[in-house]
Write a sequence for this structure.
């Protein structure tokens, strides 16, 4: 009896908590750039198509159970023997095939389109940033700007960013939900990922792949700035930030949790990115 009373006290609180939790913004459907917008549209399109199928199935199910249910006026009814209906069999075979085709075509088109800079920014030169995952932190190297940051990355708003993903240690997953989908980081490999923020703001990135006890701390901030702010930040880093020595780099990538760091050079001076193997469709396509 006491257990039942306790359950009746806890249940309402649990339901209220669940409903309030649903009031938070769903970042996947809050796109802040063209890449995330394309993927969000694809998700909505897929849900709409599947919900249409569910609606049709439930409507037909309701019609069948109401129209053909047992009633006082048909208690003795025996349906005739039927060997099958060719047209019905064609319909229920063809419809699922058409649904899969509709989902596949849109998914393939969107996926391949995102392997290059966003269409709206195709005339803007992308900024290139190397992303290196380690246990349990993220390193961002700007080869052209000669800057490196740890656990945060600044980017200019309205400019496509070509992230070149790699890892030192276990495979991980680089994900900024409001800017685009995730892509894996692998030791000795490079994968390209294009992202873009339409306006200034801060967006939380995280690891989407379990990599040990410090996995929950593998979050980073993407800070989108105006062109003037980004230029000012670069100049400030070059004049005030310390240099990243090879010893310091080797110390950073050891397993452990660290805070934000900024350096006026990058570890690519010690690790040749050209020695890494590309794992990228467009790279091999162009090479051929």
């Amino acid at each position: 009896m006491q257990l039942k009373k306790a359950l009746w006290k806890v249940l309402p609180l649990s339901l209220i908590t669940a409903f309030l939790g649903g009031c938070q913004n769903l970042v996947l459907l809050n796109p802040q750039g063209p890449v995330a917008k394309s993927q969000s549209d694809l998700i909505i399109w897929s849900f709409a198509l599947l919900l249409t199928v569910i609606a049709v199935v439930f409507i037909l199910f309701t019609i069948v159970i109401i129209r053909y249910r047992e009633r006082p006026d048909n208690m003795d009814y025996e349906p005739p023997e039927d060997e099958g209906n060719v047209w019905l069999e064609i319909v229920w075979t063809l419809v699922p095939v058409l649904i899969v085709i509709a989902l596949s075509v849109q998914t393939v088109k969107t996926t391949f389109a995102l392997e290059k800079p966003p269409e709206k920014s195709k005339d803007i030169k992308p900024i290139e940033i190397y992303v290196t995952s380690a246990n349990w932190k993220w390193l961002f190297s700007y080869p052209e700007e000669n800057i490196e940051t740890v656990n945060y990355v600044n980017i200019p708003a309205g400019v496509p960013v070509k992230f070149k993903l790699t890892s030192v240690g276990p495979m991980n997953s680089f994900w900024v939900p409001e800017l685009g989908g995730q892509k894996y980081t692998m030791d000795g490999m490079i994968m390209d990922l294009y992202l873009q923020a339409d306006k200034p703001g801060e967006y939380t990135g995280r690891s989407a792949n379990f990599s040990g006890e410090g996995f929950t701390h593998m979050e980073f901030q993407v800070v989108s700035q105006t062109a003037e702010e980004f230029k000012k930040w670069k100049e400030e880093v070059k004049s005030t930030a310390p240099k990243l020595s090879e010893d310091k780099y080797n110390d950073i990538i050891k397993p452990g949790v660290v805070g934000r760091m900024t350096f006026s050079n990058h570890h690519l001076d010690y690790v040749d990115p050209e020695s890494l193997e590309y794992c990228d469709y467009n790279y091999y396509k162009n090479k051929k």
User: Anything to note?
Assistant: The longest strand covers residues 127-134. Residues 3-13, 15-24, 280-288 have pLDDT under 50 and may be disordered. Helices lie at 2-21, 34-67, 86-113, 227-240, 246-252, 281-287.
